[in-house]
Write a structure and sequence with these properties.
By secondary structure, the chain is an alpha+beta fold. It is built from three helices and 13 strands; from the N terminus they run αααβββββββββββββ. It has two domains: 95 residues; 136 residues, Jelly Rolls (Sandwich), CATH 2.60.120.40. Strand 8 and strand 9 form a beta hairpin. Helix 1 packs antiparallel against helix 2. This is Multimerin-2-like isoform X2.
């Protein structure tokens, strides 16, 4: 805007000078034509006056334009300085924008790398899940096949039961025998050595059968609390446990042994010079109907029992054979 104004002022100055010169020439021509017939001396005076007027106008024009040109040059110098400052500021801004652009491009590349890695990880995870899903679907199909097979077998068994159901006609005695057989298969007992008091049993020179008198449970009445002997009512696998409690002694042990039909099976035994001692043992045995199982006190050993019922003998039928 300042540059345009300065150029406009300079142009006006030049036009003014040209106009002054044109007017001077026009006046000289009119004066010469109006007084053509006068004397030559008159013409010389007029020409001299015109020359003086022209010289004055030229000097005036030069004096008017010279200050304006200097002003315009000063303004143009200031303007150029401002433009150089603006140019440097614009260049600094462009460099800053370029730096930010490079940083943005670097961030974009890093983000693209991270997104690519995440995408690869997601694809790998999806593949793993798809594999697991296929395996699960295969397992479900196998289970469905097993279920269908079981249903078919169940239907076959149900049909077989329906086929023979009409021919089953048990008498009262047969039903009672079945009930007795079922009851005989319910066998379990547990007992402690004494019913009351605080009693030490032993020591004896030889092994001595023990009679466990305090009965906790005796389903099937296979254990005899008068003799301490268990008699198997049915053929099957039975499990027996013995627990021993006694007073500690340096040389006198506490121990019992489990026997089947006179055969030694296991021993629960301990000897310690402490206040009290304890031991336990057990075994599973295949018994025939009428086989007997009992417990003997170990030779030269003693055991103790009281209202806490530490010393016990237990057994039960696991399953018939």
């Amino acid at each position: 805007m300042k540059t345009s104004g300065a150029l406009l002022v300079l142009l006006c100055c030049c036009l003014a000078e040209t106009q002054l010169r044109g007017e001077t020439i026009s006046e000289n021509e009119i004066t010469h034509q109006g007084h053509y017939g006068e004397a030559e001396n008159r013409e010389n005076e007029v020409m001299g006056a015109a020359q003086r007027t022209e010289a004055a106008a030229t000097a005036s024009t030069q004096q008017t334009c010279q200050p304006d040109i200097h002003t315009v040059l000063r303004e143009m110098s200031v303007l150029m300085a401002e433009q150089r400052v603006e140019l440097r500021y614009t260049k600094a801004q462009m460099e800053a924008v370029d730096t930010r652009l490079r940083a943005s491009e670097s961030n974009a590349e890093a983000m693209e790398t991270r997104l690519t890695e995440r995408l690869a990880a997601s694809e790998k995870k999806a593949e793993g899940m798809e594999t697991r899903l296929l395996a699960s679907e295969k397992t479900v199909e196998e289970q469905r096949a097993v279920i269908r097979e079981l249903k078919e077998k169940q239907e076959e068994q149900a049909a077989a039961v329906r086929a023979v159901g009409g021919s089953v006609n048990l008498t009262g005695s047969q039903v009672q025998e079945l009930r007795w057989e079922i009851e005989e298969r319910k066998v379990s007992f547990s007992a402690s050595l004494v019913a009351s008091g605080d009693v030490n049993t032993g020591p004896f020179n030889a092994a001595t059968p023990l009679v466990y008198k305090h009965i906790f449970i005796n389903i099937g009445n296979a254990y005899n609390p008068n003799t301490g002997v268990f008699t198997a009512p049915v053929r099957g696998v039975y499990h027996f446990n013995v627990f021993v409690f006694g007073n500690g002694h340096a040389s006198r042990p506490s121990g019992v042994s489990l026997h089947k039909n006179g055969e030694h099976i296991v021993l629960a035994y301990t000897v310690q010079n402490t206040v009290h001692v304890a031991a336990s043992n057990g075994a599973s045995l295949l018994l025939e109907v009428g086989d007997v199982v009992y417990v003997k006190l170990w030779p030269n050993a003693w055991v103790r029992d009281n209202y806490n019922h530490h010393t016990t003998f237990s057994g039960h039928l696991l399953f018939p054979m």
